[in-house]
TrEMBL record:
GO terms for molecular function: phosphatidylinositol bisphosphate binding. GO terms for cellular component: membrane. Coiled coil: none annotated. SMART domains: SEC14 (SM00516). Residues 161-258 form the CRAL-TRIO domain. It comes from Manduca sexta (Tobacco hawkmoth). CDD domains: SEC14. PROSITE patterns: CRAL_TRIO (PS50191). InterPro entries: CRAL-TRIO_dom, CRAL-TRIO_dom_sf. This is CRAL-TRIO domain-containing protein.
Length: 309
């Protein structure tokens, strides 16, 4: 497996070999040995309802955990537990038909091209006000489908996230966030899919975002918290992400976010992918997962008290 280029995920010619070498897995025998170890471990996890995974899937699991089989075990175990604990995030599989109402409010996609250092860029481009907690839950579900696809198909060193809130009333957007649901969603991303975030870039001129970020930073831990950046203008994002790989909505040369989202929905909505997502949603654990203290957002409700713009 030396290339996975498709309409959604492009690689540099040297991505696979560079990433493997980065984690000391450039030798095929070393990589096979690591996959064998993970495969053997899975066979012994009788509390998992699914224990047979393709070797390509296991390889990517190890790669995304910096070449560590032990971290890959941790990630798979956590995600299986979270599917059992939070089934509402995993109960929609057909991106083509299940998320059409999102098109009015926001477009989201992992971008086709990698950065030069082999990071994948994720963009959320929010276009209209009126988002409700139910709409946000749909956004979270759609994001998780894309994460599942990335885990099965991509080969990269991590993720850069861009959240573009320039077109909306940020205090109203923050007020729509249900704390408990947001808490669970971030837990799934950070402990289930274990996103390796090189940076989070929030684009808005609203001062309300600063108070919000201050509250949620502890969730990400000290290392990732230092990588959260707020930009009043999109142009300063170009210091971190090459402008040419960004969508036209953000001043780049790539297709618009509307086109990219439609491409993702087309691919995720194929029969093959819908069946795959349904199958993966059944990969659960009978052992409970306990949230770590760092995920305590202290209560339920919403962030309405932050709306002070």
């Amino acid at each position: 497996m030396d290339s996975i280029n498709d309409i959604l995920l492009k690689l540099h010619p040297d991505t696979v070999t560079t990433v493997r070498k980065l984690y000391n897995l450039e030798k095929r025998e070393d990589l096979d040995r690591a996959i064998d170890a993970l495969e053997d471990w899975l066979k012994m996890q009788h509390h998992f309802t699914k224990r047979d995974f393709p070797r390509d899937f296991l390889e990517r699991s190890i790669i995304m955990m910096k070449g560590s089989v032990e971290r890959a075990k941790y990630q798979i175990s956590n995600l299986c537990s979270m599917r059992a604990m939070y089934p509402k995030f995993f109960d929609k599989y057909d991106a083509k038909n299940d998320f059409n109402k999102l098109d009015y409010f926001a477009f989201s996609a992992y971008l086709p091209k990698l950065t030069q250092d082999h990071y994948r860029v994720y963009v959320l481009h929010v276009t209209n006000d009126g988002i409700t907690p139910d709409i946000l839950l749909e956004c979270f579900r759609f994001c998780i489908l894309k994460c599942e696809y990335i885990k099965a198909h991509d080969y990269c060193t991590g993720t850069v996230t861009i959240l573009d809130y320039r077109k909306i009333n940020v205090p109203k957007f923050i007020a729509a966030i249900d704390i408990a649901t947001f808490h669970q969603f971030l837990c799934i991303l950070m402990e289930g899919y274990v996103l390796r975030l090189q940076g989070i870039h929030i684009v808005t001129s609203s001062k309300a975002i600063e108070a919000f970020v201050k509250i949620v930073k502890p969730i990400f831990g000290p290392k990732v918290s230092k990588r959260i950046h707020i930009h009043a203008k999109i142009e300063t994002v170009y210091d971190y992400v090459p402008q040419n790989i960004l969508p036209s909505d953000l001043g780049g040369s790539e297709e618009s976010m509307a086109v990219l989202q439609e491409q993702w929905k087309d691919v995720l909505g194929t029969k093959e992918n819908v069946n795959y997502m349904q199958e993966m949603s059944k990969a659960v654990s009978n052992k409970p997962y306990k949230l770590k203290d760092k995920y305590d957002l202290d209560g339920a409700g919403t962030f309405r008290s932050l709306c002070v713009d």
